[in-house]
Task: structure prediction
Amino acid sequence: GENVEQHPSTLSVQEGDSAVIKCTYSDSASNYFPWYKQELGKGPQLIIDIRSNVGEKKDQRIAVTLNKTAKHFSLHITETQPEDSAVYFCAANTGFQKLVFGTGTRLLVSP
Amino acid sequence: DAGVIQSPRHEVTEMGQEVTLRCKPISGHNSLFWYRQTMMRGLELLIYFNNNVPIDDSGMPEDRFSAKMPNASFSTLKIQPSEPRDSAVYFCASRTSGRADTQYFGPGTRLTVL
Result:
């Protein structure tokens, strides 16, 4: 079945810096890759997603890139702010309509 | 627009007791997912329903866990009897058929079994 690996597990940056989180997946049939942000005490919230027919997608300070050949995708956050501090999860879909999640990255943005 | 609603938000119970977690999906969504989140195992899919029918329950840890979806607006996850290792945050998520893969999560129920 699908396996998703996520790195790094923790990431500390200064406010204004960029942050990059990387994920790899194993199932070449996966065609949908969402990213979720989870704040303390809350459920994961979808922040951006990408489908396999595109290589990059942007939404203001957030962008996601996808390399289907290498089976990896990345989340890029520019001009980080303290409110970006949270745990971020990547995921990939499977042929059975399920999502398989990475293990999460704890991002800390220091003022 | 109300999101996924879960209740209770917190539950503390003693080992051996029955626990029932509840979920109301987003109106119009036809798929519902139950997840468990722990530090050790991350986010695990327990079971999911399409059109109120259980499709895949391979993630349900054992017979002590059961889930039902009697109608499109309500689902329950029951643990009987509960054990300390069941302590976790349980999330419900729902999905619309319009965007078949995007799942929207509820706020979760934090379960503590003493």
Summary: Chain A has a mean pLDDT of 94. Chain A is about 0% helix and 55% strand. The first strand of chain A starts at residue 4 and ends at 7.
